[in-house]
Write a structure and sequence with these properties.
The chain has about 150 residues and is of the alpha/beta class. About 45% of the residues lie in helices and about 15% in strands. It has a five-stranded parallel beta sheet with strand order 2-1-3-5-4, sandwiched between helices. Helix 2 packs across helix 3. The protein is globular, with a radius of gyration of 14 Å. The chain starts with a strand and ends with a helix.
Length: about 150
């Protein structure tokens, strides 16, 4: 598995925590920024991660900003992306099992580093169940085709 990860200035600390987790889990990753505490624009970081996931260059993406909201909105503008904003472990598992999410968004101002690591670990290790959920994900894909 290969993961693309990025944050804006509001998610820099959690991004570093998640990079540590990825190393511990022996998961290859590409850090697409940012590397500063000064204000930057989250779409500039969400879109490269989402594009790499959508193209198949990486398997999954992780995005962190202050709330996770901006990153998730921006990422979901890319065709093929199912970015889930997650701040609890139940949702981390459910969004992989039921929605086959391929990008995870979190908010550093909402959760702490320990919970962020656990959410990411669960999200990275949970498989899509398929079955009845596959039909629903296919309907999302169809929506993308009709709303271009």
């Amino acid at each position: 598995m290969k993961v693309a990860i990025a944050s804006d200035h509001g998610g820099l600390n959690i991004k570093e925590e998640i990079k540590g987790l990825l190393k511990e889990m022996n998961i290859s990753f590409e850090d697409l920024g940012c590397e500063c505490n000064t204000s930057v624009d989250y779409p500039d970081y969400a879109l490269p991660v989402a594009s790499k996931v959508a193209s198949g260059e990486v398997d999954k993406g992780i995005l962190i900003c202050g709330t996770g909201i901006g990153m998730s909105i921006a990422a979901n503008k890319i065709k093929g992306i199912r970015c889930a904003l997650v701040h609890d472990t139940f949702s981390a598992k459910a969004t992989r099992e039921h929605n086959d999410s391929n990008v995870l968004a979190m908010g550093e101002r909402v959760i702490g580093p320990g919970l962020a690591r656990e959410i990411a670990r669960i999200w990275l290790t949970t498989e899509f169940e398929g079955g009845r959920h596959e039909r629903r994900v296919e309907k999302i894909t169809e929506l993308e085709k009709t709303n271009q």
